[in-house]
Amino acid sequence: MGVVDMTNPPTKDFFASPALSLSLAGIFRDAGATAAAATASASMEVEEGDEGSGGGGGSGSKKDDTVEISSENSGPARSRSEDDLLDHDDDEDDADKSKKKKRKKYHRHTADQIREMEALFKESPHPDEKQRQQLSKQLGLAPRQVKFWFQNRRTQIKAIQERHENSLLKQELEKLRDDNKAMRETINKACCLNCGMATTAKDGSITAEEQQLRIENAKLKAEVEKLRTVIGKYPPGASTTGSCSSGNDQENRSSLDFYTGIFGLEKSRIMEIVNQAMEELQKMATAGEPLWVRSVETGREILNYDEYVKEFSVESSSNGRPKRSIEASRETGVVFLDLPRLVQSFMDANQWKEMFPCIISKAATVDVICHGEAPNKNGAVQLMFAELQMLTPLVPTREVYFVRYCKQLSAEQWAIVDVSIDKVEENIDASLVKCRKRPSGCIIQDTTNGHCKVIWVEHLECQKNTVHTLYRTIVRSGLAFGARHWMATLQHQCERLVFFMATNVPTKDSTGVATLAGRKSILKLAQRMTWSFCHSIGASSYHTWNKVSTKTGEDIRVSSRKNLNDPGEPHGVIVCAVSSVWLPVSPTLLFDFLRDESRRSEWDIMSNGGPVQSIANLAKGKDRGNAVTIQAMKSKENSMWVLQDSCTNAFESMVVFAHVDVTGIQSVITGCDSSNMAILPSGFSILPDGLESRPLVISSRHEKSNDTEGGSLLTVAFQILTNSSPTAKLTMESVESVNTIVSCTLRNIKTSLQCEDG
């Protein structure tokens, strides 16, 4: 039969949503033609045949063609103009009855029929065949009439939703254009059209306003991109205005093109600088002695700065600047990740931040100078911002602007270089010019077996500032933000990802969880918990830390925040207390003690000295210390479950844990989604103290020895929910409670490890 299917209406223009019209004359001429009927104002049935059929479900001839049309306003109310029009059409059919043997009769659904179908539609927009048969008998309609009415009704609802979504997108785009227009007007006023410099000293004050406009513009871009992706009508990065004419070329350029008068550099000059930086990175990554000399004591490579100055003709940096220190390091390693995915993780700011959660507290792509060749980003250049941290509030963060350049060197080799550019970063925010990146980055070599060899070079120029005595050695030696730290974190995160995606996990590496879906849900929850922990304890500007005095003399820092709508954390007022201490034990020994469930009762005051039972143990790395466990602490009153994520690499270790709802974690074990499970992590961060020295014994075996002088830097952090109401005020009782937990935990750890006097 010639049935018109209304489930796929014609696509509408992105910016305009014109009302869909019904051409009645077209239906008269050809009952089998496609009817655009999403917004017709009545429901009707058109049947063609030698014999008419009533409004009921009587069947016509084999040549019957039926068109079902339903509207947004279908119901008992019908306009007078519709009735007049349809009556007029019936009169025309009667007049032509003598000329044509075939005649057409039009039957409208009654108000009762529409009401019943609307009622069922609200309960079930997709009725099954049995429901349609029952409804057709009840209303006296053919089953296909009911079927087409529901199809048309669904099409209407979809059209209404699309119009609403298009309206939202249009509003966002209009805001974006207005901001772009205001930004261009501001810059035109502030800059000379000939030389690009500020016209007067007074105009220099516009820089801050322009900067704010640019940041808001970047946010709007991100919001529009999210809307595009959600709606699915346009792929990410696609133009919303269709084919662009030459008149829109200015709007499609990088926004950096409009700032040459303020940044003081043309795009061509920036490209020249990043190409020079790429050449320097390649030399720094591959050169041996005399540029790099290996330390006999530590085994680390040390940059010969005199050779560096001669090789690269470096200008003196003492031109009026405060005294600066140079930190240079190089590290080589193999990571378990394919090359395209690894390159993508560096070029996407969010993925980059997630890859290094313990080092990066903030990251953003400020501007894209060159998009590069899709989809592999070859030749991409972008201005980026990062806030670098250590997992303690005692070490100030480092904020740095830099330009990142991605380039394919050969079929199997890529390079990613970062370099700070004086004019650019100083004009963005001169107050942040305390840390600059000299050409740094990595050379990535594909080894064709899912692995990549990475050579990492980190080269920083930092203004000297005061560092807490505990961390002075590890910071000033370059270990804290050096290549070894970046490489160890990269290897750990890539290995974690491989274990997360694995489908052939040995039983011994996944005890207590029966399904692969359950394993992934637990690992995903543990990773979110660790990310949250890293985000909560650093010296980032996200937090305001206050030093509090304690009776036992510990240096404890406290901050508070209010969670209003994040489903991943409990809603209300959250207090975080952190303390960092030095302990005369090796990092390995300290990590093994804290992650050992059999010794948990020695330091965890919440366990009340009771036994701890292992519920599940999931490996997430080759090292047995990299594991996610679920532990049950039993007491006389109740049983409390704890989710624990222990992580260790060549540089640092962490033990992160959180008390979880038993029912909720059991559902996660079965494979349910854990994204909305509220969790509040506490834990420990363990670092070497930086006092590396000559090994105490000399061995012919080429392996790392832990028998070196030095101890561990332990950071203890606890978070508690003090009030479930976000509007509540922080009380001194809450602060004292969390301080007591930190103090008691530290005292228990020192007692168990017999280092009370440390």
UniProtKB/TrEMBL annotation:
Residues 98-108 have a biased composition (Basic residues). It comes from the Eukaryota. Pfam families: Homeodomain, PDF2_C, START. Residues 84-95 have a biased composition (Acidic residues). Residues 102-161 bind DNA. Transmembrane segments: none annotated. Residues 100-160 form the Homeobox domain. One of its GO terms (biological process) is cell differentiation. InterPro entries: HD, HD-Zip_IV, HD-Zip_IV_C, Homeobox_CS, Homeodomain-like_sf, START-like_dom_sf, START_lipid-bd_dom. Residues 159-230 form a coiled coil. GO terms for molecular function: DNA binding; DNA-binding transcription factor activity, RNA polymerase II-specific; lipid binding. The keyword Lyase does not apply. Residues 33-113 are annotated as: Disordered. The keyword Coiled coil applies. Residues 263-499 form the START domain. GO terms for cellular component: nucleus. Residues 33-43 have a biased composition (Low complexity). Belongs to the HD-ZIP homeobox family. Class IV subfamily. This is Homeobox domain-containing protein. It comes from Gossypium mustelinum (Cotton).
